[in-house]
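Hi there. Long-time user, first ticket. I'm pasting a complex I've been working with (about 947 residues overall). I'd like to know whether the download I got is complete or cut off, because the file seemed smaller than I expected. Thanks.
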Amino acid sequence: MNAAENFDVAIIGGGLTGAAIAFGLRSLGSRLVVLDEGDVAYRASRGNFGLIWVQGKGAGLPPYGAWTQQSAREWPRLAAELAGATGIDVALAQPGGVHVCLARDELDRRSGKLDALFAQPGFQRYDVEVLDHDALARRLPGIGADVVGGTWSALDGHCNPLKLLRALHAAIAGAGCAYRADRFVTWISPAADRFELETLAGRIVAGRIVLAAGLGNARLAPMVGLEAPVRPNKGQVIALERVPPFLALPVETIRQTDEGTVLIGDAQQESGLDEAPGLDVLATMAARAVRVFPQLAEARVNRTWAALRVMTPDGFPIYEQSATHPGAYIATCHSGVTLAAAHAYALAPAIAGGRLPPAFNPYTAQRFDVPQAA
Amino acid sequence: MTHDFDVAVIGAGPAGLVAARMCAEKGLATIAYDEQATPGGQVYRAVTTSPMHRMGILGDDYWQGASLARAFARSGAQYVPRATAWAAAPRDDGAWQLGISVAGTSSAPVARAVILATGAQERPFPIPGWTLPGVMTAGAAQLLLKTSALVPSGPTVLAGCGPLLWLIAWQYLNAGVKIDALLETTPRGRLAQAMPHAAGFMLSDYLAKGLQLVRHVRRRVRVVEYVTALAAEGEGRLQRVRYEADGIAETLPADLLLLHQGVVPGINLAHAIGCALQWNERQASFEPAVDAWGGSSLPNLYIAGDGAGIAGTAAAAARGALTGLAVANALGKIDARTRDKAAIAHRAELARALRGRAFFDTLYRPADTFRIPTGDTLVCRCEEVTAHDIVEQVQRGCPGPNQLKAFLRCGMGLCQGRYCGLTVTELVAQERGVPPADIGYFRLRLPAKPVTLRELAAMPSSPEALAAVVREKGTH
Amino acid sequence: MFRRLPDADLATTATVPLTIDGKPFVAHAGDTVAAALLAAGQVAFRTSAVTGAARGPFCLMGSCFECMVTIDGVADRQACLVPVAAGMRIQTRDGTS
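Hi, the file is complete. Here it is re-exported in full:
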């Protein structure tokens, strides 16, 4: 393959972030390409837990609370459009969700954290109830005696993240957009009116590019005058066999999927690029899950995995348009499931419009530049 | 940090029995765990308890396993039957933290070195209808004979290729069982392909025994050669077997179909622990990468027997001995000179056992048609994913088994890819025109066999783990 | 599908009375639950979680997970890995629950 392939827009990265943006831009048809790596890569989007989560988000950056709520509101539209375009039901359910606490002081700390969150100037409020054990037990039969209480928000929900990724890709393909796997991007050469991408399997030329390569963004961003100080943050998941339906609401670290399996997702560790689950962490997660739902003790663990969240220094996304190369955009976050609707319906149109509006200013990487002491 | 044992051996088949005996005899605190109730693995299954011992049906080779089991029992090694090893994690001090499940309760012993001797499994044999009750592997039927003196009672068809198929046919004939047909799937021209390796085979022990056995079966059983298609049919259970050979199709009534097209290494535990795998082109299977002593890519973790690469029972025993010697040296019980001197005889045994393998492997390499199915044939039995489903995703750009697993759930069922992994890799390789070695395999993780959440919770935690999970929760 | 060889050393092997789907059956010491079920004439042991199709044992060595039955009230145990014991209650998916 010697000749370069030409497109109007190239999205580097076919994970949930890149695929959601591509979905929002799919009217471009064959003028859009999504580039992906090979079968074994640091794919955060194969490790997602599946929460569409609002409660607790935005401490330190109030607009993020609003951004998250906006995405949760638009999610039903995304699920419907995907079902219509592809026949794939991504199993969206937004019944509300609970964050459980296993000790009195934990519950007090959680409650205080939410108060402080809402007290931020300009924060877009929503209702959260602090529930004691008995109130929680009414919503979640079978909840363990060790659970002292939790916080409930009606805005929380979940979906099947693997079906979501598959549906986004099917919709993009259905719209005639191009998808190229095994296209690890080695170099980006910006020219006057285009970007030339060198990949491991040939050259791609595009008028505009979107860097949605997760951890790979750190290497690619400087090539187009952007920065992406992202680091891997390891989370782990335990997948249990199918059990009879018992959990209608997602609990922040335990959810029952549309297929009947139960997932337990938790843990944050800075352990570089190591993607192996640790037995000690899995054991700790399992012990905690059994305290939350004792009936799960006899369910069988079928699979475990670890995945690397793409973590910025403050945990909030980076959305930015390059000042030096205005056709280059970057999008990175660690909540690709929750934000999928916002990425498709708000971020993608902004990119299509050629300029990111001021609403995205809080998300540039400049916020990480620490002013030098005088 | 203390440890519970010097050596933990996982698997009590020929390799495990010999390795454990060798380690114990050299003075190492040794324990062997095995999933079955009695020692012997699969090839010597039930050798110490079989009801078949006065009957001259199973053949002398089988009964040799009894002496291996006796030597192991006398060695001083501990033995835990009905134990499933589902986890192994390296500790900072180089020892291994194991997860062992017995009767639904898990313990977490620590051993300075681990020897995996988990052996082989039947190669997947995906044909239309292979999930119907009444379709089993030939190995499964042989286990029923060895452990329980059970033989087929109705119309029975054997199908596939490889020495085990002929062996079980011979054993059944000895037992007076009627076999309706043996459908041989070795393609035309294979013998010619295998001939360059014939010299080794001629000198091997397999030749005389094998020819006699095959001749005996051919005289008494209807053998159909060069079968190019197979299907199991029936409503809720197997009722018919349909096959094609030389352009002619025939349907046979059957209530038992025994499939066999060779065995492949059981790699799940090794791969889940993190051992590097390599593709063996001649045998068309993945195996863990090991050195001449059975050392894997991970420190203090060894792999012996068919689990390290298919080479047969005699080779497994020889490799078990070599690995036992290597571990005894690594843990300071014998010096390198003693190890190397003792190894000479075992290397000679191994070389002798390997003579003729190249011929067999070439002759009995299953035909592409039976390794790589098409259309509605199920590839993943557990999640019911068809060949067509997989090909469709690959045509849409899905590059390999792990992305396929994410999109189709193939490989996510309880068998953890044991009966579909190789098929998926080869199907993707064929569709993409890329060698299987470049496609790779499902990325497997712990647990290597399903265990309850309670058993996972019983594994030791650590300060780092608590910090990772508890964080601002503040309590645990 | 399967029968016992009449001359095998079964006279010296202890017999093991148990029940299969509520009906009494006599197995032999050394049988796994799977072998006992097959000796009793059971063809299908369970149904597939995905489509409900009938499934029976395939590998009999603990790696295919097709032979799962309920033993003494505990569901989804691999019948090929459990030796029979006197008084054991075995329930297949087809039978009474």
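A couple of notes from our side: Chain B touches chain A through 50 residues (CB under 8 Å). Residues 372-439 of chain B form a domain with the Arc Repressor Mutant, subunit A fold (CATH 1.10.10).
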